[in-house]
Amino acid sequence: MTDTQVAPPRHIAIVMDGNGRWAKKRFLPRFFGHKAGVDALVRVVQACIDRQVEQLTVFAFSSENWKRPSDEVSGLMGLVLAAVSRYLARMGAMGVQIRIIGDREAVPEKLRKAWNEAEQATAHNQRLILNVAFNYGGRWDIVQACRKAIEAGVPAQELNEARLGEFMAMRHAPDPDLFIRTGGEVRISNFLLWQVAYTEFVFSDCLWPDFSEADLDRAIAAFQERDRRFGGVKAAGAVSAC
């Protein structure tokens, strides 16, 4: 590792974009793209374990995705249930701890029950924490944290960044080091707004179902070339990348 490189990312966040376009290119219904996207996620989870990434956070369903056609939304709900049933034992054997972040109130009871079972069944695992953001939005996260702080009776003069962070949906995790978005779009889309203040971004044209270990390695390599100063300056004598 050179002076301008940094350690590998402890925490990677991914916007898994491009499922629908992947299906359209193959003249398939969008649902098949989402199904292929689940398979891609399983591959990336294993790749992250192999690369000793500690936490992986994926954007599975945003609070804005309810605007999509009702048949696509219901299909996604069913796909999540099927994925939990199909992959839960495998994830457990891989040492993955599953955590669901987001507003659970609007999702079906059957889905909430499956999530609870997945979290309980994998709570002891430590090889990788997989945070699945479902019915999640960054603005929602900040608002719900403020509400919880008020409900907890935190005085206004004591409410600083660290205190509010204790109420965020991702309070159990360090902020992401690396943010990857597939699908060719170059925006955050209301994902982890609070947590990505100093995260490094990599945008890929690859559609999510095609995202491979090689694509992950390219993103990590790009991250390791970044000069991360977190608003500060390098120590005297250090070589700057710019």
Radius of gyration in whole Å, from Cα? 19 Å
The residue ranges in which pLDDT falls below 50 over 5 or more consecutive positions are none
Intertermini distance: 18 Å
The secondary-structure element order is: EHHEHEHEHHEEH
Q: What does the largest sheet look like?
A: 6 strands, parallel
- What is the total tally of β strands? 6
Strand content: 5-15%
**What strand line-up does the widest sheet have?**
3-4-2-1-5-6
Tally of separate helices: 7
SSE diagram, text form:
Elements: E1 11-15, H1 19-25, H2 30-50, E2 55-62, H3 70-94, E3 96-101, H4 109-122, E4 128-136, H5 138-151, H6 161-165, E5 178-181, E6 200-203, H7 213-224
Parallel strand pairs: 1-2, 1-5, 2-4, 3-4, 5-6
Describe the structure.
With 242 residues, the chain is an alpha/beta fold. It is built from seven helices and six strands. The chain has helices at 19-25, 30-50, 70-94, 109-122, 138-151, 161-165, 213-224, and strands spanning 11-15, 55-62, 96-101, 128-136, 178-181, 200-203. Strand 3 (96-101), helix 4 and strand 4 (128-136) form a beta-alpha-beta unit.
Give me a quick take on this structure.
The chain has 242 residues and is an alpha/beta fold. It has helices at residues 19-25, 30-50, 70-94, 109-122, 138-151, 161-165, 213-224, and strands at 11-15, 55-62, 96-101, 128-136, 178-181, 200-203. The longest helix has 25 residues, at 70-94.
